[in-house]
Design goal:
The complex is a heterodimer. By secondary structure, chain A is an alpha+beta fold. Chain A is built from three helices and four strands. Helix content of chain A is 45%, strand content 18%. Chain B has three helices and no strands. Chain B has one domain. Classes of the chains: A alpha+beta, B mainly alpha.
Chain lengths: 146, 100
């Protein structure tokens, strides 16, 4: 791997953080959703990250990367529903109310989601800083020849 | 974008390679063919950057950071190519100034 490969690693982190922000935004947007296609209230989603070797374009690069087993990008392995049971609120007039007049609302804490969103935004910022540092390293190595 | 102009350069170097009298070293690759493949690599990165930018602008849902990284890769490889080119030109000029 060369320095351009380091860009790939940071790029994978940016993609993963973008997906995390998407899921958090979806949780926030559906904090009061009582109706879904599957039936029942919206379920809060959680993102699972997984380390993954960066993709190799050519066989030759696989050989040259034998010493780079430690280089790992990140991918979103899966998005799983939060098993926390729904909150039941007494709203007899609501169309989604059950026989006893209770409506199931997703157990989503907007504060927790905001903290996740901030974490995602900061991680994105962090990885952009890593991209810029790598870029500067490549530019500086070009100045050796200049 | 820059990619269209690069093919011009590689054609010139191809022409030089066929017309030149330089013989490749025993067992080694021809310098011009190496230069050519390096130029093609730069061109490939630039066309990739073009595609990514087009993907963002046409609303195909390409990630912006992916496009930016592709553009940055193309730009850096172009800079590397320019440095190599400057070095070659400089070497040529140095030789051409040799006093007889």
């Amino acid at each position: 791997m060369n320095l351009l490969g380091v860009l790939e690693i940071s790029g994978s982190a940016l993609t993963a953080e973008r997906q995390r922000a998407e899921v958090v935004a979806s949780n926030l947007a559906n904090a009061e959703t009582t109706h879904t296609a599957k039936g029942g209230p919206y379920q809060r989603q959680l993102v699972i990250f997984s380390a993954q070797p960066v993709s190799h374009a050519k066989f030759a690069s696989v050989l040259s990367d034998v010493g780079d087993e430690y280089a790992r990008g990140v991918v979103v392995k899966s998005v799983v529903p939060d098993p926390t049971p729904a909150i039941r609120r007494f709203e007899p007039g609501h169309p989604d109310a059950d026989r006893e007049g209770y409506v199931a609302y997703p157990d989503i804490n907007p504060i927790e989601e905001m903290v996740n969103l901030m974490g995602s935004a900061r991680s994105y910022q962090l990885n952009v800083a890593a991209v810029q540092a790598t870029k500067d390293m490549i530019s500086q190595s070009l100045e050796i020849l200049a | 974008m820059m990619s269209s102009s690069i093919s011009g350069i590689s054609q010139v170097s191809q022409a030089v390679a066929t017309a030149g009298t330089v013989q490749p070293a025993e067992g080694g690759a021809d310098f011009y063919s190496q230069l050519n493949s390096a130029l093609n690599q730069v061109e490939k990165l630039q066309s990739e950057a073009d595609q990514q930018i087009a993907g963002v602008l046409s609303g195909q849902g390409t990630d912006i950071h992916k496009a930016m990284i592709a553009v940055e890769k193309a730009s850096l490889s172009f800079q590397l190519m320019m440095q190599v080119r400057n070095k070659i030109i400089q070497a040529y000029q140095d030789v051409s100034k040799t006093a007889f």
